[in-house]
């Protein structure tokens, strides 16, 4: 019988970001009070599962989301840089028209190609590094389950890649809510199922920040 392994991709909880900055890879962005509750709700959702390996993006918000899981399963958190947020030209800025960065002509050249995309890390590169991180987690949790804490865009691109869908998309179409879980089930090294859950759905008070 082929060995079954599940790799769960957990998006971090809500971030304390009162200024509405596209924070990307900037340091110092922690979970909000609701974000902490979301992380605990996710850990509770995993409570009866067979989790034997735990990985995280190096960003503070991801590590704080991983912490309740580490405590619940008595596991170390292994940092994998490949789980980090995507690179983005607009990092550190507010994005949009009005008072946002789109009013400034120097940024317009970064918007010419939504298929690559021209404003940040190429989708193909993002899919490749996330796939490599998932393979590492699959091997670490072989025959059991592993959790990788990451970010909205990397998780969504990995899912599109796994389901053989096109990688370019509209941000509003992402099915990857705060503290959501995208689960990849493997039989041996063959992906046989992709599932999605929202353990903290009742805690979300508004739309999540795209790419966070």
Automatic annotation (TrEMBL):
Write out the GO MF terms: phosphatase activity
Q: Which domain of life is it from?
A: Bacteria
Q: Name one GO cellular component term.
A: cytoplasm
Matches recorded under Pfam families: His_Phos_1 (PF00300)
Database matches in InterPro entries: His_Pase_superF_clade-1, His_PPase_superfam, PGM_Phosphatase
Q: What is the recorded name of this protein?
A: Histidine phosphatase family protein
């Amino acid at each position: 019988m082929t060995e079954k392994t599940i790799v769960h991709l957990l998006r971090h909880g809500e971030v304390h970001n009162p200024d509405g900055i596209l924070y990307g890879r900037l340091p110092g962005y922690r979970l909000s009070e609701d974000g902490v509750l979301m992380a605990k709700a996710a850990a509770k959702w995993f409570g009866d599962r067979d989790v034997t390996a735990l990985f995280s993006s190096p960003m503070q918000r991801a590590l704080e989301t991983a912490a309740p899981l580490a405590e619940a399963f008595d596991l170390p958190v292994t940092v994998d840089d490949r789980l980090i947020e995507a690179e983005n030209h607009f990092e550190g800025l507010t994005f949009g028209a009005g008072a946002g960065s789109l009013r400034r002509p120097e940024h317009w050249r970064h918007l010419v190609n939504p298929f690559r995309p021209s404003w940040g890390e190429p989708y193909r590169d993002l899919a490749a590094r996330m796939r490599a991180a998932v393979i590492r987690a699959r091997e670490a949790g072989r025959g059991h389950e592993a959790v990788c804490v990451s970010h909205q865009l990397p998780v969504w691109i990995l899912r599109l890649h796994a389901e053989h869908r096109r990688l370019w998309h509209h941000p509003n179409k992402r099915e990857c809510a705060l503290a959501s879980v995208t689960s990849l089930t493997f039989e041996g090294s063959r992906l046989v199922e992709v599932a999605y859950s929202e353990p903290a759905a009742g805690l979300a008070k508004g739309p999540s920040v795209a790419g966070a």
